[in-house]
# Entry
Amino acid sequence: MDLISIRDLEKKEIKEILDSAEEIEAGKKKPDLHGKILATLFFEPSTRTKLSFQSAAMRCGMQTLDFSPETSSLKKGESFHDTIKTVEGYADVLAIRHPKEGAVRLAADVISKPVVNGGDGGNQHPTQTLIDLFSIRKIKGKMEQLNVTLMGDLKHARTMRSLVYGLAMFGSNVTLVSPKGLEMDSTYLEEVSKKFGLNVKMKDKPEYADADVLYVCRIQAERFADPYEAKSVQAKFMIKKEDLKDAKKDLAILHPLPKINEIENSIDEMPQAQYFKQAHYGVPLRMAVLEHVMKR
# Structure
C-alpha cells in the first residue's frame, strides 16, 4: 500500500503503527524485511527524514538506494515520470520528497510498488505526523484531551497541516498561533472540524500558558516582502527561556527541525525540550511504517 497523506490511514491503522513503533522502540519487536530494497528519492534537502528512513530500512534488514537529483538523468532532461518508472524496477518501496504538491501522489499512481511520502511541497508529511503523535503519546501517555498549541508559519508548514488532522482524529484541543497573514487555511480547518469535531482556537500572539504540548515551526522570512518586518515577527515569535516561567512545568516542546532562530538555544538543556528525542523516534516509527506498507 501507499502512504501519501495522513488521510490514507484510519484511526485503527494509526494505532497499529504507533503500537508497533512502541514495541520496536522498546526492543520487543524487530521487523524482518531482509532481501527488500528501499529507494530514497529526495528532490529537495533533508537530514532527519532521509537519514531516518535509511536507518529504519537498515535496521529492518533492508538495503537502500540513494537517489541524487543533481547527479541523475534529470540533468539531461529526463521527466519525473520516467525517473519514477525506472526506479520502480530497482527497489521494493520508494520514499519520495518533492517540492511540488501532488508529485508523490502522481508517483504512486504510475507505479505498482509502495510509495511513502517524505513531504510534498506545503501539502502533506504523513510520517512526520505519525512521529509527532508517537512522541506526544510517549511523553504524555495519551493524545486525547490534551491542550496542543501549534505556533509559527501555519500557512506554509506541511507538518502542521498533517498534524492538525491527526490531533483532531484523537480528540486533542488545538490552539493555532501565527502572525497575521500566516494563518492555516480556514477551508482546510472547516473540513477537519466537520469530520472530527475539531476543537480549535486561533491567536495571533504567542501564548501557551495552558499548553500541555507546544509544537513550534519557523517563521519563514522569505514569505515577507519587507525583510525588517520579517525580523520583527521572528523576534516576536521566538521562544526564550524567560518566556517559559508561566508555562506548565511538564510542558513538552516539539519541533520538526531544523530550528533556526525560533527557539533560544538555552532551552535545549531544559526538560521541556523534547525535539531531539522526537527526531530520534523517527527510526522506530519509520521501521513500523515500512513494515506496514510492505505487508499490505
Q: What stands out?
A: The CA atoms of residues 22 and 28 lie 9 Å apart. The chain is about 40% helix and 15% strand. Residues 126-279 form a domain with the Rossmann fold fold (CATH 3.40.50.1370).
